[in-house]
Amino acid sequence: MNTFEVLKKLSEAPGVAGNESGVSQIVAEEFKKYVDELRTDALGNVIGLKKGTGPSPRRIMLAAHMDEIGLMVSEIEKGFIRFTTVGGIDDRILLGQEVIVHGLKPLPGIIASKPPHLLSPEERKKVTPKDQLFVDVGLPEEEVKALVRVGDFISFAAKCVRLQGDMASGKAFDDRASVAALVCCLEHLSQMKHRWDVYAVATSQEEIGLRGAVVSAYGIAPDLAIAIDVGFGDSPGLSDAETIKVGKGPAIAIGPNFHPALREALVKIAQELEISYQTEAIPGPSGTDAWAIQVSREGVPTALLSIPLRYMHTPVETLSLKDIERTGLLLAHFISRLEKFPPE
C-alpha cells in the first residue's frame, strides 16, 4: 500500500465525532480489500473481520478511532456563524483556520474575528476566545440561514502534505494515522496465515468519551485487544519524560490499563524482527480506546501501541510515515504467531 496516499485520503475526509460518515466510507473501502466480512454498527463503527484458520478461532480486536475534533454551529448572527467545539480544541489554533460548514451543502469558510488594529491594548495580550470568533462563508444572511442550522458540524479544511524525508503533516492524524496502520496490518496479514479471527475496528466518538470502543468491544466480545492511538511526539519545549521520539517506532505502553503478558509478547516480537519500538509509561487512565475495551464485559486483556505525533489536536499534526508502517508490521507479525493466550 502507499502509506501516504491512504493517510491523505483518511486525513482530508470530514468526520467530526458524532458525524463520521464521510471518513467511514473511505475506511470501508480500504478494509474491504483485505477482510472477509465488513459491517457498520449502530454507532457508526466500521468493523472488518478477517477469519483465522483455527478450528475454533479466538478473537482479537484491533481498535483505532476515526473521528476527529471539530466544531458545531451554535448561532447565526447577521450571516456570520458562531460555534462551539466538539472534542478538545485549544482556542489558540482557531483564528485564521479554513473550515467546511456541513449544512444542506458543504460551505467553505474561514474563522475570523476583529482585526488586531481594532483591539484594545488589553485584548492584544490575550488569545482571542472562541466566543469572540465566527465563521464567515461569504454569503448574505438570508442564504446562510437557508443553508445552515444550529447543530450543523464544522470540520477543518487542512490538506495533508508531504514534508521532507518520510514526514507528513495534516489534520486528524489523531487517530487516522492508526487507522492507516490497521490497513497496513491487514495488507500484511493477507500474505500470512493466522489462527485467530481478526476484528479491525475503526471506532467512532472516541474524542467525546470512547463511545465507539465501548459498544464495539461489547458486541465483538474479544479474547484479546490492541488499541492503536497516537502519543506526544518530541518537539522543542517538551521533556523526554513527556514524549516519545518521532521516527523511532511505536511506543508499547506499560501501566494498569495494559495486560503485562500481552505487552511482553509484543516487545518480544519487535525485538526478534528488529522493529524499532519505544516504551510509554501510563500510570493511570490512558484516555484511549484501550481504557474502554479493557473493562468490557468480564474484562479483556488489552495493549496499546502509540504512534509518535507532534502538535496533537491541531490541523498541522506531524508524524513519520515509517512509524505507521512499523506499527502495522508489528501487529501483523504478532497476530500471525498468536496461538494460546496467556502463553504457557
Write the SSE topology.
Elements: H1 3-12, H2 21-31, E1 37-40, E2 46-50, E3 59-65, E4 70-77, E5 80-86, E6 98-102, E7 106-112, H3 121-124, E8 134-136, H4 141-147, E9 153-156, E10 161-162, E11 167-170, H5 173-189, E12 197-203, H6 211-220, E13 224-232, E14 251-254, H7 260-272, E15 278-281, H8 289-294, E16 302-309, E17 317-320, H9 321-336
Parallel strand pairs: 3-12, 3-13, 13-16, 14-15
Antiparallel strand pairs: 1-2, 2-12, 4-5, 4-9, 6-7, 6-9, 7-8, 10-11, 11-17, 14-16
Description:
The chain has an eight-stranded mixed beta sheet, with helices on both faces. Helix 1 crosses helix 5 and helix 7 crosses helix 9. It is 27% helix and 27% strand. It has two domains: 232 residues, Zn peptidases (Aminopeptidase); 87 residues, Elongation Factor Tu (Ef-tu), domain 3 (Beta Barrel). The two termini are 36 Å apart. It is globular. With 344 residues, it is α+β, with helices and mostly antiparallel strands. The chain contains nine helices and 17 strands.
